[in-house]
């Protein structure tokens, strides 16, 4: 065996529960509609040491806890479906849609989990074998699928495929945390009741904006074009993950004492300045953009419950001049632009939302896109056999995509950077010393 071999494919049903599952469809908000044509997000939890639990025990606890958590998170058990009469997509949570249950794959691998967890450039095809393969030629499609892989040399990988329309990073993290809590303790965190009702996303003309997003971003519905690149196209991309410790982040913050940049701004500015430099933009006076999501829950009027699981983030763009951000004081200039964008988005997070699709389609060498958050605690998710050693986004889909998550140790941040292979070595040398790379 080379790579990964599937042992069994089963279904995990939604367990009957006192928590009622509405027998209806969820109409996507305009914030959800931006992601209808996106491929499934693919996450991997890597547990290098699971000696305190056998593989059958891990499978059993994951399945039993998943069937118990799904009534609370019923949209994750639904199907993303196109309704021609409404010219829009919905998450179908009817009894017939969720009756099939969640696809649950059990597999084994002769790969080395330590090389996958720590190597700077994991072999892409092997890496993608650790997550469920969800092919979406057209809607409907499942929202969630799960794969658990046992490594014959030790360790376990939990691979997840989940569609972005069901929630943003914070919403999806709510699901993982609740699932892990039931798996580990037998119950969800006290007082935790997820909110799925898209009616809380109140915005003038929101329904029409959602339809316009679908028209511009998913014009072939129910056929899905998927914005991700094929494996052949992705061969030109590579990714490395950098572990930033507290001292490194603190030293970057001190470089701009006047602006007092946050952890997010200081890391993002360092990435932006380094990317612009290695792309050779020092003589390019064109625009350079850094895009990132801004959580709108607390900024909505009235504020939206923090347990809302749907998409509630707005895309924010910091605008710079390429030559300036690629120059000697690029970090300082990037800090200033990022901070200005954050302040503006805090005051007006939805300003100009009607034009978001037009901006999102302009993806060039002068753009860096950030996702995740320095506060997202994916690396702290404990299913009962310890926290994962690594949490990774499996997809390599765009040059200049950066994913941040809170590191396993307090004060640390993991930064995964995807670039064209020709730029990665130079980026790594400029961004951090060798000992800080994973």
TrEMBL record:
Gene3D superfamilies: Chloramphenicol acetyltransferase-like domain. Keywords: Acyltransferase, Transferase. One of its GO terms (molecular function) is acyltransferase activity, transferring groups other than amino-acyl groups. Pfam families: Transferase. InterPro entries: CAT-like_dom_sf (IPR023213), Plant_metabolite_acyltrans (IPR051504). This is Uncharacterized protein. It comes from Rhynchospora breviuscula.
